Amino acid sequence: MTLSTADTHRLDDFWQHCLKHQFFNIGYPENADFDYSALERFLRFSINNCGDWSEHSNYVLNSFDFEKEVMAYFADLFEIPREDSWGYVTNGGTEGNMFGCYLARELFPDGTLYYSKDTHYSVAKIVKLLRIKCRAVNALPTGEIDYDDLLAKIAADGERHPIIFANIGTTMRGAVDDIAVIQQRLQDAGIARRDYYLHADAALSGMILPFVDAPQPFTFADGIDSICVSGHKMIGSPIPCGIVVAKRRNVARISVEVDYISASDKTISGSRNGHTPMIMWAALRSHSSAQWRRRVERSLAAAQYAVNRLQAGGVKAWRNPNSITVVFPCPSADIARKYGLATSGDTAHLITTPHHRDNRAIDALIDEVIADARPEVWRATLQRSWQGSAQRLPRTASWNQAAGLGRF
Ligand SMILES: *Cc1c(COP(=O)(O)O)cnc(C)c1O
């Protein structure tokens, strides 16, 4: 490639920018702890996965074989027999949510979609694009859906085919809607299993819950009809991507034969990224289940550490079970801007993604949040540490050692 000197400088500048900020992220769930250098050489090819990876395609430069293995992995992980499932590598959580909602609407064209007010903003776009009737349901203070309000709204609408958009980890509070309670309540209301659809938005927590000891229910075995996960969140990817898994018989309803590519099309976009299935494949092939588990444990421990430190500093921080999202009252706008915090109303959060190998970034933010919220507590803390008191709050390296946490 020939670029002018000026353009080369621009790229060099952006390279420095990327190097400097690669681990900046503490307010968003993108994990930067990955190494896909083994795949870099494939960037010179126009790999395209248009169509269905399980069929033959005339477009020879596809990575279907890799996508097939990725989907087998997630079918196993989300407890659905491979032969009963179908899914694909998407452009991200939003496309996966859209795919799930699309299947639901084809099944129940007049059904109303119910989602809690804590649901990711993508749902608003999706119901508009798909022209699905929808109803926002109240959220509980934890961020879970208000089950009473859900059932009250279904009853008030006289809805016989509800489409339930369940959060498996909300964006702001990491809350998991209890799909066991939802299913029980629907059954109690006289709505049979075949008469509703249950989609699970597991953008972040879909790669956390499979690796904890006591997960909330979230799999096909627990009753879902489809699920999506973002690939660039807990797994980590240089290119945004995701995974969606659904029931094969529901997907068959939307399949279209396309003679142009000599394959059937079930996916939302036409041409599909051929590199991201390889990225997901490499991530899954290079980490054992024990390694994912360790990684999740480390992130959960860091989240609890942040809760403890903030609470000790007088800040009302908390987190949901099995969540790496630490919720606390919104700090001043300066701090929110400096740390790139995502805030909503009077709430902020930090997310202890796996690239926070030590607690340096977490500590820096917490120090400022405490100083901002409770200056008197902060002064007292500093005084104690100046006096060399053993009460000094636990710090990065020593805390990591104490918790027995090494590199992933
Ligand atoms: C991030 C997120 C999404 C959207 O995922 P993208 O990969 O950004 O499209 C959807 N739902 C939840 C709960 C999320 O956190």
TrEMBL record:
This is Histidine decarboxylase. Keywords: Decarboxylase, Lyase, Pyridoxal phosphate. Homotetramer. Transmembrane segments: none annotated. It catalyses: L-histidine + H(+) = histamine + CO2. Its EC number is 4.1.1.22. The keyword Lyase applies. GO terms for molecular function: histidine decarboxylase activity; pyridoxal phosphate binding. Belongs to the group II decarboxylase family. The modification N6-(pyridoxal phosphate)lysine is found at residue 233. InterPro entries: Group_II_Decarboxylase, Hist_deCOase_bac, PyrdxlP-dep_de-COase, PyrdxlP-dep_Trfase, PyrdxlP-dep_Trfase_major, Pyridoxal-P_BS. It comes from the Bacteria. The keyword Phosphoprotein does not apply. One of its GO terms (biological process) is carboxylic acid metabolic process. It comes from Pseudomonas rhizosphaerae. Substrate binds at residue 120. Its cofactor is pyridoxal 5'-phosphate. It is an enzyme of class 4 (lyase). PROSITE patterns: DDC_GAD_HDC_YDC (PS00392).
